[in-house]
Amino acid sequence: MTLEVYWGSGSPYVWRVLLGLEVKQIPYESKRLSFSEQDLKSAEFLAINPRGKVPAIKEGAFTLHESVAILRYLEDREPQPPLFGETAAERGSIWCAIMECVSYVEPATGNFTAPIFFGQMEEKRDKVIKARQATEKEFATINSVLTERAYLVSDNLTAADIVLYPFIKFTARAAGKENTDVVSGTLRDIDEHYEALSGWCRRIEALPGYDNTYPPHWKES
Ligand SMILES: N[C@@H](CCC(=O)N[C@@H](CS)C(=O)NCC(=O)O)C(=O)O
């Protein structure tokens, strides 16, 4: 049965799923949707995800959305390499790191990147600076964890790394945009200020198949 993957370029949530598919080497049929063409609000796609958001997958009559749920589905679909741990302690630690990302890193980075990407930096400047400070705090904590091990939870890649990685890249991209230096602080140069985090990014970027996951429109600008 073909696994259909519905995605759009430049979504951190989509990036998680594409990374999971590449790491597990699961073949899939790509269904790229356009945000601007309103593909996500078509009746056909709403039948797959009633929230009209990507990522979503379809396999036969089965449909699933929510990036972390999809990653968990892929784990059963193809257990190797294991991304969700093999012991109770590993599973608990991986889910803890996933939930910390979803609960704290996602909102902090989202409040920083959204106004920059949507051209609202001037009117939301104070909020962006606050979000930057919250993000810097999260990045410092993660950086310190990564001075002790190669990946977030252990010396092996897990789902927690895949859940976090796109949000680091989105933050770096927003902080590197023109005229954002006044609000970006240390986020403007992650390599310099968060060395261990930067090394971790490079390890993920060296994974086979990584290039297939890179947002296509980022290659153009
Ligand atoms: N919690 C969801 C978030 C998905 C999400 O917000 N996707 C965005 C793209 S980054 C989307 O499809 N937005 C389109 C819309 O809301 O109209 C997940 O983890 O998959």
Distinctive features:
binds glutathione, 221 residues, 10 helices, single chain, 2 domains, Glutathione S-transferase Yfyf (Class Pi), Chain A, domain 2, Glutaredoxin, alpha+beta
Summarize the structure.
The chain is α+β, with helices and mostly antiparallel strands and 221 residues long.
For the record, the count of structural domains works out to 2
> In terms of per-residue confidence, which ranges show pLDDT below 50 for 5 or more consecutive residues?
none
Radius of gyration: 17 Å
Please state roughly what percent of the residues sit in beta strands, choosing from under 5%, 5-15%, 15-25%, 25-35%, 35-45% or over 45%. Answer: 5-15%
Q: Give the ligands present.
A: glutathione
Within the largest sheet, what's the order of strands? 2-1-3-4
CATH topology of the largest domain: Glutathione S-transferase Yfyf (Class Pi), Chain A, domain 2
Distance between the ends: 36 Å
The quaternary structure here is single chain
Determine the mean pLDDT. 96
Total strands: 4
Structural category is alpha+beta
